[in-house]
Task: structure prediction
Amino acid sequence: MSPKTLPAAEASARPQFGPNRAGEDRALFERYHDAGDPLDREMLVERHLPLARQLASRYRSSEEPFDDLFQVACLGLVKAIDRFDLERGIAFSSYAVPTILGELKRHFRDRTWAVRVPRDLQELALAVDHAVRRLTVTLHRQPTVPEISAEVGVDDEEVLEALEAVGAYRAARLDAPRRADEGRSGETLGESVGVDDASLRRAEDRAVLARLMRRITPREREVLFLRFIADLTQAEIGARLGLSQMQVSRIIRQALSRLRTTADARGAQTIAA
Result:
């Protein structure tokens, strides 16, 4: 969002203010609040664009593009202009600075995290990140956790949690190619971290089998369980259930035949559908 430049004719129609910047700003604000002329608003925005740019520059070291940060700062500037109250008797910059910084901090909190974490942890993570940068410059080395804790004013456990949360700020794309120096040219990150899970392949089979087992009798289900899950012999099953080995064999054969017939019928219906 870049404020528009006033056309030359319209700009020349505006009064030309002198070196008294505070007086000029007050006159513009009075006229804008009285008449609501959008051209006065644009003039106020243009006059204070350097302030928005300066505040956005504070975050230039972040991974966010500066143009995006400047756009957010301009949005905060417009909000400050619309909400500024002349009756409070303070300079506009005193009101605009916290408003613009608040908009920038809200942008980092709500728009730049790849994985959403609690707001208080987001704010702590940003505070810890800034503390690490300051201490690195001061100490000429990476600071320790106790040093960061003393700088931020929290305990070591909270610092460790915040450092871990920083990893959620940027997420790697699974379809991103691996680096050439890793020796896996052409392979994506998703291909390198994924593994075959045999249990997932069996999940559908288990679901189908659970439906098929409803088509046989409880006695047949029990016999199949003892044979194929408990791994008992037909003689052992017969002794447990009071059946002969021949009866057990017939029950198993009939049950399996019914399961196959039902499965084939369901498969044909699926193919036809």
